[in-house]
Specification:
Layout: H1 2-20, H2 31-37, H3 53-59, H4 87-109
Length: 116
């Protein structure tokens, strides 16, 4: 009986916490916060200035005012949110180097065995 009560409590806690953590538009603000601020729960960038509502709140600007931009941020909508040019190449190089390093380390631990 106690086990069932504990399970029911955990399920209810999960359901309640999930309801508060819903972010319909994936802008970094939960729907309840967006309702309090007056931003759109289905619109990632309510004021259409190129910055998501969550980024604007985090950086201290008004997500409802398109004339104010976060300081020291890229403001061109053509390049905002795009990764650096060589992002994938850098990621590949780091992955390959880490694998080579792991191989060398494992090989040095036991010279008689071959590791993949």
């Amino acid at each position: 009986m106690k086990f069932k009560i504990i399970i029911m409590f955990l399920v209810l806690t999960f359901i309640i916490s999930s309801a508060y953590a819903i972010d319909t538009d994936n802008d970094g603000l939960e729907d309840l916060s967006e309702q309090e601020l007056g931003t759109g729960i289905n619109d990632m960038d309510t004021d259409k200035d190129g910055f998501s509502d969550g980024v604007e709140v985090e950086l201290g600007t008004n997500p409802l005012d398109d004339s104010k931009y976060p300081k020291n941020q890229i403001t061109s909508s053509a390049i905002a949110g795009m990764p650096p040019k060589n992002y994938l190449t850098s990621l590949l190089v780091i992955t390959v180097l880490s694998q080579i390093g792991l191989f060398m380390y494992m090989r040095s631990r036991n010279e008689n065995k071959f590791y993949r």
